[in-house]
Design the sequence.
């Protein structure tokens, strides 16, 4: 039973992770409740309107436009997001230079905490804004008409609608637009937004004609997914399986001679290789994102790679230069197990850290990894129960035969000794007795 469970875990992991990363690619069409908003319906009645879900902050965006006689474009927009807090702000703007916050000519709607109706104004976002300076309503050098903000209590949508006259300098086939959501505001002044990936990726280059967009974070998001998959499979699945094999199949309850080592070694080696690629990709991502660092995730990631590298180099050193020095080997075993078990703690913690960063689009990731952990835990539990049952059963048998011949020579008897000494400790019964003689003699 147990030997068939491991492949199942691997298969499940392989299938559920790509789904977490790529399968949940929901359509870009707006949701029904957005399409039923009064503002959208009215807009669509007057002129055929395009609508898209934006990639971040659960925002949806509808627009239509026509060219005026002076080579200008009149654009009607509607942007909405579900506002969960009782106060906050929603911003949308265009940027004549680049798809970024600084330089954006924004329309910001503020929802005051006292429940009165929201107010909406235009703001010129500059470098100073980014340095935590205040922003006050101002002229933005564009004609903005009929700007309204609404909070629809039924669906929870908070929306801005407006009409802009864009001069020729804005290329409507490549319109840089930016949106943002914040939860604190004082009077007319929005306070700084959260600093999550979502808040940084909320900008794109949109083609108003076709609705096609070039999202700024697109490439990076794909790298993040590959980073997540490699790390979950490498560190999070293969390495624990390797440990399970070493713990339960080396001596007790199953003794699989040199077989266990081949499997242990290949799981660790493959896990290490995949994990290292994932780790390198993580470093690259961290290097690229000059705006933010995820400190805990980074430090833990570096520790994991460092510890694992120590494990692997030690292992290689032993295989190249087998030594029979028992004292040294005993110390090495303790150290090998210590590093191994601390890795087993750090890895899931850091995987959950990473999943946390993807908030709020991380539910599939969370469940995929929860599933892997639960399966691994079930296998360990089953093997542990089996180990103890076998052990207790054998001891009873031995006690019955005690009067007969001495039983100190069989491996099971050694096992028994060890077990009674180690009762309740985290390491396995067979731990620390000639762990690495097997691989060397077996290879
Ligand atoms: C309320 C005052 C605001 C403050 C203090 C503020 C501050 C910041 C800071 C510190 C960053 C981190 C990136 C960096 O350091 O370069 C950032 C990024 C960003 N913010 Fe704001 N922000 C504010 C309002 C807004 C508004 C109103 C918008 C939308 C119109 C917006 C959109 C963005 C975007 C898209 C990014 C991503 C990085 C970039 O484009 O530069 N922010 N903001
Ligand atoms: C509009 O643009 C075209 C070329 O892009 C130009 O020939 C024409 O003079 C412009 N018209 C006005 C009113 O600016
Ligand atoms: C808005 O800020 C930019 C600098 O980011 C400045 O060049 C521009 O003149 C400002 N526009 C208005 C209308 O104040
Ligand atoms: C703004 O709203 C008024 C009244 O609803 C309407 O008459 C006018 O056409 C609107 N302007 C634009 C540019 O949509
Ligand atoms: C606007 O962008 C499109 C697509 O990149 C490009 O082909 C076109 O020449 C641009 N128009 C202007 C006026 O810059
Ligand atoms: C709510 O707060 C805004 C500004 O924060 C203020 O202008 C408005 O009068 C307040 N409304 C009520 C009903 O207190």
Sequence:
């Amino acid at each position: 039973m147990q030997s068939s469970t491991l492949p199942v875990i691997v298969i499940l992991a392989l299938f559920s992770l790509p789904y977490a990363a790529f399968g949940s690619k929901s359509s870009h069409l707006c949701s029904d409740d957005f399409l039923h908003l009064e503002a959208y319906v009215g807009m669509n009645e007057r002129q055929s309107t395009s609508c898209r879900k934006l990639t971040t902050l659960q925002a949806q965006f509808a627009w239509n436009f026509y060219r005026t006689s002076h080579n200008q474009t009149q654009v009607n927009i509607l942007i909405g997001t579900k506002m969960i807090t009782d106060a906050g702000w929603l911003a949308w703007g265009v940027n004549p230079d680049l798809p970024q916050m600084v330089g954006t000519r924004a329309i910001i709607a503020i929802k005051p905490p006292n429940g009165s109706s929201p107010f909406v104004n235009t703001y010129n976002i500059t470098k100073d804004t980014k340095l935590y300076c205040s922003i006050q309503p101002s002229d933005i050098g564009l004609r903005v008409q009929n700007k309204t903000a609404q909070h629809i209590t039924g669906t929870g949508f908070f929306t801005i609608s407006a009409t802009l006259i864009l001069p020729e300098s804005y290329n409507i086939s490549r319109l840089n637009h930016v949106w943002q959501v914040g939860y604190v505001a004082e009077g007319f002044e929005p306070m700084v937004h959260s600093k999550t990936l979502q808040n940084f990726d909320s900008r794109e280059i949109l083609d108003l004609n076709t609705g096609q967009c070039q999202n700024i974070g697109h490439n990076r998001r794909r790298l993040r997914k590959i980073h997540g998959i490699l790390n979950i499979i490498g560190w999070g699945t293969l390495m624990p399986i390797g440990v399970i094999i070493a713990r339960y199949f080396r001596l007790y309850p199953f003794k699989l001679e040199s077989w266990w080592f081949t499997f242990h070694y290949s799981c660790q080696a493959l896990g290490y290789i995949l994990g290292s690629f994932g780790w390198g990709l993580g470093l690259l991502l961290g290097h690229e994102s000059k705006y933010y660092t995820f400190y805990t995730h980074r430090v833990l990631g570096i520790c994991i790679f460092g510890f694992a590298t120590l494990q692997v180099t030690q292992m290689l050193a032993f295989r190249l230069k087998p030594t029979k020095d028992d004292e040294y080997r005993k110390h090495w075993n303790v150290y090998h197990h210590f590093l191994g078990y601390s890795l087993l703690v750090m890895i899931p913690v850091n995987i959950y850290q990473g999943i946390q960063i993807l908030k709020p689009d991380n539910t599939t990731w969370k469940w995929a990894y929860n599933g892997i952990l639960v399966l691994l835990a079930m296998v360990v539990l089953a093997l542990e129960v089996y180990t103890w049952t076998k052990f207790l059963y054998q001891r009873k048998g031995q006690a019955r035969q005690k009067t007969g011949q001495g039983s100190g020579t069989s491996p099971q008897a050694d096992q028994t000794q060890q077990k009674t000494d180690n009762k309740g400790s985290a390491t396995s019964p067979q731990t620390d007795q000639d762990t690495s003689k097997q691989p060397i003699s077996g290879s």
